[in-house]
Design goal:
The complex is a heterodimer of chains A (150) and B (163).
Chain A: H1 3-6, E1 12-13, H2 21-34, H3 41-54, E2 63-64, E3 67-69, E4 77-87, E5 97-105, H4 110-123, H5 127-135, H6 139-147
Parallel strand pairs in A: 1-4, 2-5, 3-5
Antiparallel strand pairs in A: 4-5
Chain B: E1 7-11, H1 16-32, E2 35-43, H2 44-52, H3 58-85, E3 90-97, H4 99-109, E4 114-118, H5 126-131, H6 133-140, E5 144-148, H7 151-160
Parallel strand pairs in B: 1-2, 1-4, 2-3, 4-5
The chains are: A alpha/beta (150), B alpha/beta (163).
Chain lengths: 150, 163
């Protein structure tokens, strides 16, 4: 499953309201609950925090990719959040994170999970593209940039 | 055996579409008498990229690699079941590496006449043209490529095939 198949305006929050790591994870999970993509908020939250406890998924250059394998979802599930002001996600470079790609995958879908994460890693290598995402004013605009159909 | 199709290479990636392609491959092998080869590629390139990007920890790489090994076994076993049910013998192959390159390599090794793949999603981004592994394999292989569509029709064809 390609990233483009997962990206819909209803799973995107622009801008995020949160100011802390735990809060941003909760905010993005709530986006998934509201989009009817997630039922068990608490179990998903625990799975994400357990992964964060092993090492922060806050990468360099403002990107964070919190992810976890969990049976609280039946298919690969993505939420995207944008925080132009930046949030302390305990990133590897110590800088605030702006672009959040939260991904949950059922335990039997490691293949699609890896492909989608790999695509996120690839697109976020472009500083220009990340800047365009940061400037986006609405979920629709973010979705359009990520799906870039023509 | 004569005819344009003597060796069929089926690429299996664990999607529903690949299972439909597997059913069609069995039909094609049965009607042409061609040899059927099924290939699953463990995408270790993507795993390595995720570790390099620091999205994955080393322990996660091991865990996911193990998951992918299990997927490969499961999906190839399923192809074996689909083919043997219809009296077709399939050669099952599991490889690791960059998916499109492994498909290309294996197609050359067995001198495949046709590569069968599952239907690709209708909604694709321009990015996919460059990075989607099956799309890239389609362009790279030396042989003809057949993209299998219409799940219901294929199911009926497979079902109607004598055992």
């Amino acid at each position: 499953m390609a990233l483009v198949d997962l990206v819909k305006p209803e799973i995107i929050k622009v801008p995020l309201d949160s100011k802390s790591k735990q809060a941003v994870i909760r905010e993005l999970l709530q986006v998934l609950v509201d989009a009817e993509k997630l039922n068990d908020f608490d179990a998903a939250y625990d799975a994400l925090l357990a992964r964060e406890a092993k090492g922060s998924t806050g990468l360099e250059a403002g990107i964070a990719v919190p992810h976890a394998k969990t049976d609280t979802v039946s298919t690969l599930t993505l939420a995207i959040g944008i925080a132009p002001e930046g949030i302390d996600f305990r990133a590897l470079d110590g800088n605030p994170s702006n672009l959040f790609f939260l991904m949950l995958a059922p335990p039997n879908q490691s293949g699609p999970h890896i492909e989608a994460l790999s695509e996120i890693a690839r697109i976020t290598q472009s500083k220009t593209f990340c800047k365009m995402l940061l400037r986006a004013q609405s979920p629709e605009e973010v979705a359009e940039l990520l799906t870039e159909e023509d | 055996m004569e005819g344009p199709i003597r060796k069929i290479l089926l690429y299996v990636d664990g999607t529903e579409e690949a299972i439909t392609a597997a059913q069609y491959a069995v039909c094609l092998a049965k009607s042409t008498g061609a040899d059927l080869h099924a290939l699953y590629v463990i995408n270790t390139r993507a795993l390595n990229d995720l570790v390099k990007a620091r999205i994955f920890l080393d322990s996660e790489e091991e865990e996911y690699h193990h998951d992918l090994e299990s997927d490969a076994e499961r999906y190839l076993k399923h192809v074996d079941k689909l083919s043997s049910r219809k009296g077709v013998t399939a050669t099952l192959e599991k490889r690791s590496g960059t998916v499109h390159q492994e498909i290309k390599k294996y197609a050359e090794e067995i001198d495949a006449d046709v590569l069968l793949i599952g239907e690709l999603s209708h909604v694709r981004s321009r990015r996919d043209e460059f990075y989607h592994e099956t799309e890239r394999a389609m362009r790279l292989v030396h042989c003809s490529v057949l993209m299998v569509k219409d799940e219901e029709r294929v199911w009926d064809l497979y079902d109607a095939l004598p055992e």
